[in-house]
Specification:
Blueprint lengths: L2 H5 L1 E6 L5 E5 L2 E2 L8 E5 L2 E9 L7 E7 L4 E6 L8 E3 L6 H11 L4 E2 L3 H9 L6 H7 L6 E2 L5 H7 L16 E2 L9 H15 L8 H11 L38 H9 L2 H12 L14 H18 L2 H15 L2 H6 L1 H17 L12 H15 L8 H15 L6 H5 L5
Parallel strand pairs: 1-7, 3-11, 4-9
Antiparallel strand pairs: 1-4, 2-3, 2-5, 5-6, 6-10, 7-8
Helix pairs in contact: 9-10, 10-11, 10-13, 11-14, 13-15
Pfam families: AAR2, AAR2_1st
Family: Belongs to the AAR2 family.
Protein name: AAR2 protein
Length: 418
Amino acid sequence: MSDDLAESTVVVILDQKDEEVVGFDFVSLPEANKVSGIWNLEPGAHFMYIKTKEEEERRLGEFIYLKKGEIRVYRRSEANEGPLFKQVEEYSNQTYKESIIMGHLKNKMSKIPQNLSQLWSNITDCINSELIVKLRPINKVIKSQTVGQQIFEQCGSEMDKRNKKDIRNATIRVELSDTEDDESKTLEEYKQIANNLRGFRKTIDFEELKEKQESVSPKRNFQMDESVEEDYNPICYSDIPARDSRINRFKEITPEMLTSMHMDTSYVLESVSENYEANRDGYKAQEFKNKYMYVLGELQYSFILFLLCFNFESLEHYKKLLRAFCNAESTIIKNQELVLRFLNTLKYHVEIWDEEHDVYQKDDFLTHSLGSLREIIVDNEKDLEYCRNEYKQLDNSFKLKFGISLDDLDAINNNYVQ
C-alpha cells in the first residue's frame, strides 16, 4: 500500500437509495451509487446526511469523527427509523482499505476540492469525538426543525419565506474526481459554495407566526417547540444559566458588583465547560486541556446545524453562546488560546453570513454581540494586544460583508443611527 493511500482518511457509503441524495459536509454526491466514497478527507468532525430528491429541504444527518488514515465503511439503513447509516465493521479496517479503494470501487472513489475541505476544517476545529457523543440526539439523527405544516396551511403559503432562497441546499453538488484538482475548477466550486452559503439567513418571523396562530386558535397557547415535527428529537445542548450563581454566595453585594456580575458572562462559559469536565450525567470529556474549547465546539456545532439543516433549536443556542462569548470580559482577558480560536471561528462565520442580513434592525443579536466584543477589546487594549491581528481580520471580514466596520456598531446599538 502506498504511503499516500495509507495516510488517506476514507469514508465509503454502500447501498445508497435511488430516491435520495447523499451528502458529506459541503458536498452533495451525484446520483445514488455513482460515487461510493471519498478518500481525501481531513481528519476530524464531518457531517454525513441524506435528502430526498422530491423534498431536498428535509436534510437528515449525523456527525462522525475520523482519525488520520482511518477508513469507515457504512451501509445506508433499510429501516426508516433509527440511525441512517450502519457501520460495516468487517470492512472498516486497514486490511480491506487497499482492496476497496484500488479494487472494485476504484472508479467510484472521489476527492473533495481542497478549498472546501479547508473551509470545513476551519469551522469545525473544536468539534471533537467527545462533543459529538455528548450532543447527538438519542436516535443519533439530526434533522431540519421546521415550522409545522398545519400553521402554514392556516396562515397562508406566503408565510413560508424559505421558498425565496434555497438556504437549506447551501451545499454544492459536484462531479467529484479521483484525479488531481483543476485549480480553476476548484476556485469556481469554492465561489459557488460561498454564494450558496450566503443564502443562510433568519427568514421566518416567529412573532408573526405566533400572532397568526393565536388568531386561528386562541384557546391554544402557542409555543415554539409545538411547531416542529412530533418525532423531532432535541439535540443535547448544554443548559445556559440565566444568572451568575456566585451572587447567592455574597452576604452583602453592592449595586456595582451586581451590575458587573450580570454584564460579564464568563459564568456562562464556566458553567457550560463544567458540564463537560465534572462528569455530569455520567459523561466526562478529557481530550481538550483547555475546558473552554468544548464551549467553542458547541458554538461551531450549532452554527453548522442551522446552516445545513435549518435547525432553529441550533440557531437559538448559537445566539446564546455567541452573546456569552462576546460579553465574557474576564475570560477574554485571561484565556489567550480561547480568544484566538474564537476570533478565527467568528471571522469565518461572518464571511459565511448572509450579506443581506440587516445589521441596523432593532435588537439584532449579531450587532449587539459583536458590539460588546469590540467594547471589551477597546477597553482592554493593553491586555489584549496579542489578538490585535485576529481582531483586525474579523473587522475586515465584517466590513467586506456589511459595508461598515465594528467601530460603527456602538452608534447603531445606542440608536445614534436612524
